[in-house]
Q: What sequence folds into this?
């Protein structure tokens, strides 16, 4: 019930508001409050905020050339599969270039998502979050009724596969998103074929076992307005994603950070690349070889950041377990995770507060 819960901005922490604090239904509304110079205490994310942001040249974030993955040249393909495996194992994150999604489509997708967030609160009301499996829902923070610290963001989540949904407003949303999600789904499935091979599994092992033909695909769009105290707030607190792979685009403004070797790395996106992170179900399937990456989003004082994350998961009814073939390498040949129906995991993850990898920890043997 994230968006229905009006957030009452606490008076004590709002000395700089020129108007009495109103009921805040979205971060956009709060950010646009005249005279806002400090953030309400519920948004103050203090612990470990500054923990070790690495300098940009410390390591290089992996880059995957998608055109080589689909190339007819087997040597090029095996080289990229090797690089994919290394990126998943060492980072859980990589940038994909030459993916073939037209830059103009990426821009239209970002613009139409921005158009949705700019609708009036009244227009968005019908999509107020009614629960995890509500196919179109918007709200603020992650799970505002549960979050211990509120995130400085509004969100829109739309289930687009196996059944396609779209808000009717803005009117172009349906056409643009339908085009965009199909293209991105194709890329995600091809990346997962490469990842499957990189694990020493059959090329179609992940696709077939997790029934990706009817796999879940969700648009998770994020709107991060300017924040008067960006160093105190967090756009999205550290978490891992539930599915297999998330492919993200943004409005040219960076803000994503990934954790690598105990340090946070700024993702300085290569223009027109797709930012890809591995999710919890890839960690389960690979029996812990490809760990889902912890990531977070920081906010800025003057600029609005918009990101569109496309989450790709198994079929909701698929029970995900470590691939039996990979157990040969495991300690005592035992699975490191309990198998779980994807639907049940999604319910668990989306209805709790975001807290690192605490949901996945519940499945560790
Ligand atoms: O906005 C970003 O860069 C991160 C978004 C994200 O992690 C998510 O939607 O799960
Ligand atoms: Fe995420």
A:
């Amino acid at each position: 019930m994230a968006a229905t819960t009006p957030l009452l901005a606490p008076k004590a922490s709002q000395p700089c508001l020129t108007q009495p604090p109103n009921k805040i239904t979205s971060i956009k509304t709060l950010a646009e409050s005249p005279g806002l110079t400090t953030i309400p205490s519920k948004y103050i994310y203090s612990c470990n905020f500054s923990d070790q942001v690495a300098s940009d040249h410390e390591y290089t974030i992996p880059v995957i050339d998608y055109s080589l993955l689909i190339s007819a040249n087997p040597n090029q393909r095996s080289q990229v599969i090797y690089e994919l495996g290394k990126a998943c194992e060492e980072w859980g994150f990589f940038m994909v270039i030459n993916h073939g999604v037209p830059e103009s489509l990426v821009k239209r997708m970002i613009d139409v998502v921005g158009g949705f967030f700019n609708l009036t609160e009244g227009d968005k009301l019908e999509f107020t979050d009614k629960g995890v499996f509500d196919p179109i829902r918007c709200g603020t923070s992650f799970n505002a009724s549960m979050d211990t610290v509120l995130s400085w963001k509004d969100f829109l989540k739309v289930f687009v596969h196996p059944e396609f949904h779209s808000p009717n407003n803005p009117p172009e949303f349906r056409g643009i998103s339908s085009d965009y999600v199909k293209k991105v789904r194709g890329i995600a499935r091809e990346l997962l074929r490469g990842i499957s091979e990189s694990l020493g599994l059959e090329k179609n092992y992940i696709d077939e076992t997790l029934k990706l033909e009817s796999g879940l695909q969700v648009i998770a769009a994020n709107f991060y307005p300017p924040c008067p105290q960006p160093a105190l707030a967090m756009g999205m607190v550290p978490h891992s994603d539930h599915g297999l792979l998330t492919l993200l685009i943004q409005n040219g403004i960076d803000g994503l950070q990934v954790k690598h070797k105990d340090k946070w790395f700024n993702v300085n996106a290569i223009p027109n690349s797709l930012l890809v992170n591995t999710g919890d179900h890839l960690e389960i399937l690979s029996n812990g070889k490809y760990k889902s990456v912890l990531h977070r989003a920081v906010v800025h004082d003057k600029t609005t950041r918009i990101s569109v994350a496309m989450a790709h998961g198994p079929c909701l009814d698929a029970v995900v377990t470590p691939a039996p073939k990979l157990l040969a390498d495991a300690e005592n040949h035992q699975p490191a995770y309990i198998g779980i129906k994807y639907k049940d995991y999604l319910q668990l993850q989306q209805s709790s507060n975001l807290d690192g990898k605490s949901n996945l920890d519940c499945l560790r043997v």
